[in-house]
Amino acid sequence: MPEQQGGPPQFAVVPGAAVQRCLAGNRSEIIDLVEAAYRRHGRGETVNPPSYFLRFPDRPTARIIALPASVGAGTPEAADDGAGGAVDGIKWISSFPTNLERGIPRASAVLLLNDPATGYPYACLEASVISAVRTAASAAAAARRITTARGGRPRRIGFLGSGLIARFLHEYLAELDWDIEEYHVHDLDETYAESFARQVLGPTGRPVRLHGTAEALVRASDVVVCATTAATPHLTDPDWFSHHPLVLHVSLRDLGTDVILDSVNIVDDVDHVLKADTSVHLAEQRTGGREFLHGTFHDVLTGALAVPADRTVVFSPFGLGVLDLAVGAHVHRAAVAAGDAVPIGGFFHEMDRHQSAGVS
């Protein structure tokens, strides 16, 4: 948070290029940062209300989501746990699939950071990359701890879906201490799959296999990375998972209820993920209970949940605003230190309760 002396904080904008510079080369640090934010969340040191969805009757495929959150307020002793200081704020992220027809990305986002002492916003950050990074870092943090708990290192990673999020997921999983022998890719659009294999996975020097079906990819992979835009489950046969892979179910709606019920299910936050017809939400509706959920990622971190090696393990992260805040606050600090934050002088103008500002 910027210094202030008796007045509101200095307001600044951090544009996308500056965000990229602040995150470049810091993937391992970001994974640790996100894990520390999960620990804070598990200790009750965050406020993370439900996300709010703005939908449009005339544009049924589009949506804008508000994710308000607060991290670390009132817990100064947590400032040195690696998750950074206290911050409040909100991410405002849109998804307009028809943007692809316009030649621009589907998603766009901004992140506002607020001073916990005064409530004044002090930064607005371009947040599409922040959102992608916190998603990838959360999956990598979970994969690191879950595979360690299972007592082995995966050799084969399969990417189901080959878009922007899959690229970030690959970059962050590559930070883990795994010795990958080969990669696997499946996408409904073969052109996307071929481009992903060539441009993203090709530089690794490892063999890359393209699969014509999702079943073939699942059966070939020790870690299945679900990064699709699927609205309804399409991986429905538990037998595909008989080799018991780790499934990073980032896109949340790929797995059928039979697969969910046949797996060990780990989530980031129980109340958040059981909504919006996610795969685990559909399982709750079918069974009428939550017994199929075995625990949270915080349970893995604390050792409260023992993760078996002889069952399929599914990590379903709904995505928490507290993670966006943790990453965003880190980016803001780095941008200020590098001189990349653009101050907006006089942004807060009407500061006197009684004196007229001259507006009539």
What does this structure look like?
- This protein is an alpha/beta fold.
- It has eleven helices and 16 strands.
- The strands form two sheets. Strands 1, 2, 3, 4, 5, 6, 7 and 16 form an eight-stranded mixed sheet that branches. It has an eight-stranded parallel sheet with strand order 10-9-8-11-12-15-13-14, sandwiched between helices.
- About 2% of the residues have low confidence.
Distance between the termini: 34 Å
Largest sheet descriptor: 8 strands, mixed
Structural class: alpha/beta
Q: What assembly state would you assign to the polypeptide chains in this entry?
A: single chain
Kindly state the percentage of residues in helix. 25-40%
What is the H-and-E element order? Answer: EHHEEEEEEHEHEHEHEEHEHHEHEHE
Categorize the overall geometry: globular
Mean of all residue-level pLDDT scores: 92
- What is the overall number of helices? 11
Poorly predicted regions are 77-82
* Tally of DSSP β-strands: 16
Radius of gyration: 21 Å
- Taken as a percent bin, the fraction of beta residues is 15-25%
Characteristics of this structure?
single chain, 360 residues, alpha/beta, eight-stranded parallel β-sheet, 11 helices, 33% helix, globular
Question: How is the topology of this model organized?
Answer:
Elements: E1 12-14, H1 16-23, H2 27-42, E2 46-47, E3 52-56, E4 59-71, E5 87-95, E6 107-114, E7 121-126, H3 128-150, E8 156-160, H4 164-173, E9 182-186, H5 190-201, E10 208-210, H6 214-220, E11 223-226, E12 246-248, H7 257-261, E13 264-267, H8 270-273, H9 279-287, E14 293-296, H10 297-302, E15 313-316, H11 321-338, E16 342-343
Parallel strand pairs: 1-7, 8-9, 8-11, 9-10, 11-12, 12-15, 13-14, 13-15
Antiparallel strand pairs: 1-16, 2-4, 3-4, 4-5, 5-6, 6-7
